[in-house]
Amino acid sequence: MSGVNDGSGAEGRTGGSAGGGPVVHGFPHLDTVRSAITALYRRISPDGVGRYTTSLAPVDAAFSDADDLHLGTQRVAHALVRHLRLPEARVIVGFRPMEHAASVELTAGPEYFVELNDRFRTHRRDIGAALAHEITHVLLHRLGLEFPGTRDNEILTDTVTAYLGAGWLLLDAFRQDAGSSQKLGYLTPEEFGYVLAKRALLFGEDPAVWFTSPQAYTAYTHGRERALRDLRRPPLSAAGWAGRRRYAKDRRQAREHPGTHPDPAAAYGFEDGAAGLRVSFACPTCHQRIRVPVRGRTRARCGLCGTVLDCDT
Predict the structure, then answer these.
(1) What's the predicted TM-score (pTM) here?
(2) Neighbour tally for 296: CB within 10 Å
(3) Tens-digit pLDDT profile for residues 119-163
(4) Which residue, of 94, 106, 211, 225, has the fewest CB within 10 Å?
(5) Which residues pair with 85 in a beta bridge?
(6) Which of 280, 311, 309 is nearest to 297 (CA)?
(7) Domain count, the chain
């Protein structure tokens, strides 16, 4: 089986290249992923995110060799339309030889045309994964939510697909053996695991039980470890001893050298205000920056997602 990696399509289309090659691992796109989560909360609000409490059920994406190709594909597409709450969207799916894994024509609607690589005629178990990414493009198009540049916009699409409960299909499409590999999407497997874990922590679900790919399960566990680290970074009270010691040193330096401006990309930073020293840090849920006074134990509420955080500033 050749590798399938999501990439850019022609003008007005999105999709993925069907070339093989080594699968990238780790978290090289994590800053963009976190920005995508923040952008999603800003665009649809915490209440909007809360409408996606239940992930797409495995049965809704199931596709056996006994199913009629076109009827089965339309069934899965309609299930994804319903899951992503696109009641007015009519998705018509076809197959053709193409360089990419899939593409979608982003028009004004109400009909959207998705094309899948001919290889999916015989690799039906991954049709749901390919459709999830493309139909999320339709959702983002309707929301008017996009990032500049093809790469970042595709990362946004992968992130939203996973965060809204359909992206576990994309991670489950990641498979490797001694002689071949397959991966769908721009995110690395571990980054998919990270986003799915963020969602799981928010809604209290366990997507690991749906994975059929051992490699997907492993990637999810690595991503979950990284997501849990977000909950243990200073000035959160759950931070570990080493982090608290480093934080105390940085706080002392900020007091001794006032007037410095924090790095917005850093995990936390100190700044002087009229009421004294303040610390800014990223909300572990939506990654919006939060600013609170440096005054010891306190509780902070994120102004974007509403998460209440116990802090030791």
Answers:
(1) 0.91
(2) 9
(3) 999 889 999 999 999 999 999 999 999 999 999 999 999 999 999
(4) 94
(5) none
(6) 311
(7) 2
